[in-house]
TrEMBL record, chain B:
Entry protein name: Dipeptide ABC transporter ATP-binding protein
Gene3D superfamilies: P-loop containing nucleotide triphosphate hydrolases
Database matches in NCBIfam families: oligo_HPY (TIGR01727), PRK11308.1 (NF008453)
Keyword Transport applies: yes
Protein family according to the UniProt entry: Belongs to the ABC transporter superfamily.
Limits of the ABC transporter domain: 5-255
Keyword hit for Glycosyltransferase: no
UniProt keywords, alphabetically: ATP-binding, Nucleotide-binding, Transport
InterPro entries: AAA+_ATPase, ABC_transp_ATP-bind, ABC_transporter-like_ATP-bd, ABC_transporter-like_CS, Oligopep_ABC_C, P-loop_NTPase
GO molecular function: ATP binding
Pfam families: ABC_tran, oligo_HPY
CDD domains: ABC_NikE_OppD_transporters
Species name: Paenibacillus profundus
Classification via SMART domains: AAA (SM00382)
Taxonomic lineage: Bacteria, Bacillati, Bacillota, Bacilli, Bacillales
Length: 306, 320
């Protein structure tokens, strides 16, 4: 017995795939699944495209976003100005590109606020339960009772208009969604035996939440983050449209639509159409990607869809 | 023999709340007044059908769920009176092996990390020392140490249960609650795991509380056995006495249901009629009287006393 174990152990070790190979294999499986869902791939493409525009805005945009050329105001799309110019003669294409920076930043920061406040709140509420849990979740219910845009408007108005308060308002409005998702995940995970096993060892509650429950809840949270990006960008644009977000002359899609809306009647359609398309494609990208991500991460949905 | 663990009047009642004001309208008496001692070095079995409160008992004893009432004395201290911090400091002396080896290991952790967790929690070791400790643990339970970097899903059920056992052993406990540790495994694997548990008990002078619904497994492993029915213990005796001479009618019925390997052996089966009553609304008097073949009027109204019918042989029945 002793003699036969060592060679077989060597064989087992040799046929053992390396960590790198395994990771590569997992990545390939994962991307295959993902690309099979063509809409999700389109979503990813849109996200990457807009992120690239945002990062490389000075290289992509042919003009400065706030350069006025009054002699060329309200011109339709042409070779010189692909998306036309606005009432001050600013190049709309350049402004749309620069505005992507603001929108993507807004999305990231707002989702970051929602995530880093909502997830701990939901986790604590579910894990400890009792009156603390009730208090937290009832406050979340109150937040959810308001239409999200109205609530964001109220918060942004209270803090005074501006980019920062718009980001924070949108972030705060998103907290309950994350809290509720983490709450339901924690309720399910805290009864699992591996959590009980850690408790039986004497691991502290805070460590159980961080080490065991949070990593196992990450997949649905990741989906929520992606979908939350779309929601945040849209809400922030809405705030700017209503004059509660970005102040002129900064380029922002919602603000651009707001400024250009009176020209729809007189026929200068490009003022609102292009920023509108930018918003639509960005949010479409995040939503399609989020749905695809959910399918990949949730094996139960994987088989039910062809 | 000295008692390592003494349980006195242990109760776990789950409140049933209803209505807008969350008024308590009743309670599920999952565990309802248990008294027993577990001696050092023995394997104390608890048997009973599903829902009789076996697992609740095991978890209450370790205070993984808060019992409603009662005392649990472990090494001279009443666990029920300890603060959560004091309890944490006592955790290394007691641990638990779980029923489902698929659910009891964090799917995102490697075996190395799973086995390291108890060491990290209670000891300050250097990384290399921890690594070595984990390797020793794995070899003690019959796993190869080169498998340490694998994830639970890469193991078979039996191997996973060995990981669960290794985790329970990591801090050299004195007392381990085993909650149906083999009932999720194939029969062929069951005996391997049981043998392993027995070997480990001899090596490390462990005391087990072994929860099971499988009477033959209990017979193989346990020194004394308690039989539970509807949250109460109906009989408690050394294994030999219980299997040779069951006194309580419920135990008799259970014993007669154990399959015998000899097909020609004649056996009288006692088939119980009816269902187990709900623990929400247990019957008056003896909990078993609705299904008992020898119940009398007395059983319907008066709860039988928990008494020592024979040396070390405890039973709760009026009609002996």
């Amino acid at each position: 017995m002793k003699a036969s174990t060592s060679p077989s152990a060597v064989v087992a070790a040799a046929s053992e795939p390396s960590m790198l190979q395994e990771a590569w294999f997992a990545l390939r499986q994962w991307s295959k699944l993902f690309l099979r869902n063509k809409l999700a791939a389109l979503g990813l493409f849109l996200i990457v495209l807009w992120t690239l525009f945002a990062v490389a805005a000075p290289l992509v945009a042919p003009y400065a976003p706030d350069a006025t050329q009054l002699e060329a105001k309200l011109q339709g799309p042409s070779g010189a100005h692909w998306f036309g110019t606005d009432q001050f003669g600013r190049d709309i294409f350049s402004r749309v590109i620069y505005a992507a920076r603001i929108s993507i930043w807004t999305g990231l920061i707002a989702v970051g606020i929602s995530f880093f406040i909502g997830v701990p709140l939901g986790g604590i509420a579910a894990y400890y339960g009792g009156w603390i849990g009730n208090l937290i979740m009832r406050v979340m219910d109150i937040f959810l009772a308001f239409p999200s845009l109205i609530l964001a408007m109220a918060i942004a108005a209270a803090m005074g208009p501006g980019l920062i308060s718009a980001m924070m308002a949108v972030g705060i409005v998103g907290i309950p969604e994350f809290a509720r998702l983490m709450y339901s995940q924690t309720i399910y995970l805290k009864e699992r035996e591996f959590v009980e096993a850690s408790r039986s060892i004497g691991v502290k509650d805070s460590a159980i939440l961080v080490r065991h429950i949070f990593p196992n809840a990450l997949a649905p949270l990741l989906v929520r983050i992606t979908l939350g990006m779309g929601f945040s960008i849209l809400t922030a644009a809405s705030l700017s449209f209503l004059g509660l977000g970005v102040r002129p002359p900064l380029a922002e899609w919602g603000a651009m639509i707001s400024e250009g809306r009176e020209y729809i009647i007189t026929g200068e359609w490009w003022l609102v159409t292009f920023p509108g398309l930018a918003i639509a494609t960005t949010i479409l990208g995040f939503n399609l990607f989020g749905d695809g991500l959910r399918d990949v991460l949730d094996p139960r949905l994987r088989t039910s869809r062809k | 023999m000295t008692a390592l663990l003494q349980v006195r009047n242990l109760k776990k009642h789950y409140p049933i709340r209803q209505g807008l004001l969350n008024k308590q309208v009743g309670s599920v008496k999952s565990v309802d007044g248990l008294n027993f001692d577990i001696y050092e070095g023995e394997t104390f079995g608890i048997v009973g059908e599903s829902g009789c409160g076996k697992s609740t008992t095991g978890r209450s004893v370790l205070r993984l769920i808060e019992p409603t009432e009662g005392e649990v004395w472990f090494q001279g201290r009443n666990l029920m009176e300890l603060s959560s911090k004091e309890l944490r400091l006592l955790r290394p002396d007691m641990s638990m092996i779980f029923q489902d080896p698929y659910a009891s290991l964090n799917p995102r952790w490697t075996v190395q990390r799973i086995l390291e967790e108890p060491l990290q929690t209670h000891q300050s070791l250097r990384t290399s020392e921890r690594k070595q400790h984990v390797q020793e643990l794995m070899e003690r339970v019959g796993l190869s140490s080169f498998q340490a970097n694998r994830f639970p899903h890469e193991f078979s059920g039996g191997q996973r249960q060995r990981v669960g056992i290794a985790r329970a052993l990591a801090l050299n406990p004195k007392f381990i609650v085993c909650d149906e540790p083999v009932s999720a495994l194939d029969v062929s694997i069951q005996s391997q795991v049981l043998n392993l548990m027995q070997d480990l008990q001899e090596q490390s002078k462990l005391t087990y509380m072994f929860i099971s619904h499988d009477l033959s497994v209990v017979k193989f492993l346990c020194t004394r056995v308690g039989v539970m029915y509807l949250g109460k213990m109906v009989e408690l005796a050394p294994k030999r006495k219980l299997y040779a001479n069951p006194l309580h009618p419920y135990t008799k019925a259970l014993m007669s249901a154990v399959p015998v390997p000899n097909p020609k052996a004649k056996k009288e089966r006692i088939v119980l009629t009816g269902e187990v009553p709900s623990a929400k609304n247990p019957p008056q008097g003896c909990a078993f009287h609705l299904r008992c073949p020898i119940a009398t009027e007395h059983c319907r109204s008066v709860q039988p006393e928990w008494r020592e019918a024979d040396e070390e042989h405890w039973v709760a029945c009026h009609n002996l």
